[in-house]
């Protein structure tokens, strides 16, 4: 699927057209959202009701390096997302056949596995873009029913960062990054403008607010899209934990550009520091990737999907030394082994 330049999943209207009024233009802009139509369903960008403040929710045991230890006896209150026996078919094609895994608060998890094994599909199910045929997805312990809509908040902000930038071509960088806030918050325009500049600075961009996407390099577009994913309504009294789902963020990038993106992913995580030196705001993230550099650099724990099931889970450093023949074959790229193409 697309590159880091993704964008969070927006609470768009059910039409394919949205109108953006930024207050600093003489007319409202008509934005064709059909190219990102799936985002209208996802939405976890509006603050859900009855949320605990993030600090109250944050498990104290995860304030240190124990974050990197995944154990079966984890405290269930630490779990942000759980996939329980998830099945998904497309027509006659059975893609997911009982997927089980949990994502804890503070985790940086990679989903890996052979092509066509359903990695992007499970990401879309978590994001609410697809519904499972069978099985359940729990978000902070609450079962998700169907697709997410603006009225069915999950209690957790979830953003899906598409592989492609998916920026609105007809909007400036400022309007792209502030889109959600212009559309769905009561924040004053000047405050949004300030927040957009601050969020862009957090991903290492300055003085680009008035540019159009066509005036940006590929790497800059990725940063703008990431800024759009992490911008938050600061007037809300509750700050909910946020999860970002990245679908192949480094696909098609050269090794150095990949490193930049991998570091950016780390920098906006709560355990990292953004370009302004402030702690990142993303509680947990999941990266679907094929890239070895991304596996090594951007995630701490891996979930290996094969033939519709999780066949291995472990820490990143355990990946290359695993005795599991499926993992061994995948790590070495060997043609011989249980994975057949
Ligand atoms: N909406 C859809 N309709 C029909 N088939 C689909 C749909 N989405 C995915 N598939 C099929 O499901 C299978 C799994 O797709 P998915 O993109 O989840 O795999 P993946 O593991 O992410 O693959 P890759 O690593 O190659 O990106 C593929 O065979 C794909 O063609």
TrEMBL record:
GO biological process: lipid transport
ABC transporter domain location: 81-332
Pfam families linked: ABC_tran (PF00005)
Keyword Transport (UniProt): yes
Highest taxon of source: Eukaryota
GO cellular component: chloroplast
SUPFAM superfamilies (UniProt xref): P-loop containing nucleoside triphosphate hydrolases
Molecular function (Gene Ontology), one example: ATP hydrolysis activity
InterPro entries linked: AAA+_ATPase, ABC_transporter-like_ATP-bd, ABC_transporter-like_CS, P-loop_NTPase
SMART domains (UniProt xref): AAA
Keywords associated with the record: ATP-binding, Nucleotide-binding, Transport
Designated name of the protein: ABC transporter domain-containing protein
Organism classification: Eukaryota, Viridiplantae, Streptophyta, Embryophyta, Tracheophyta
